[in-house]
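Thread amino acids onto this structure.
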């Protein structure tokens, strides 16, 4: 298992995909439904949204998207991945810029927000 203790909470911007990937926490069982280590590589971290970081047989670092089952190579080696992890940039949002947002119903309840009783943790709004 890869040690992610010093990259947890950081972001990796892939030189291959040009996309940023946040490293949320070390992988722990169980494997998500539809995931196969034989197909997608050995998981070592979660991104916080249900997606996994894996290492394939070629020792490349990959990103598995749980919604599309797509596997992307994002770094050629562990060293390239590890050394490319940086503190994420903060984002300033001004009033009126956000049209809508989803918040985990359980988290909203913890904050004291009113949440309809029939809303489950997995419920997300329909896309327009």
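Threaded sequence (128 positions):
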């Amino acid at each position: 298992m890869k040690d992610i203790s010093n990259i947890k909470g950081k972001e990796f911007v892939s030189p291959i995909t040009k996309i940023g990937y946040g490293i949320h926490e070390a992988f722990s069982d169980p494997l998500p439904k539809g995931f196969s280590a034989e197909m997608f590589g050995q998981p070592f971290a979660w991104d916080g949204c249900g997606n996994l970081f894996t290492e394939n047989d070629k020792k490349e670092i990959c990103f598995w998207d749980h919604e599309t089952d797509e596997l992307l190579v994002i770094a050629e080696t562990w060293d390239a991945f590890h050394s490319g992890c940086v503190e994420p940039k903060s984002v300033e949002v001004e009033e009126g810029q956000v049209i809508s947002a989803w918040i985990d119903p359980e988290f909203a309840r913890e904050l004291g927000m009113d949440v309809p009783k029939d809303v489950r943790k997995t419920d997300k709004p329909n896309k327009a």
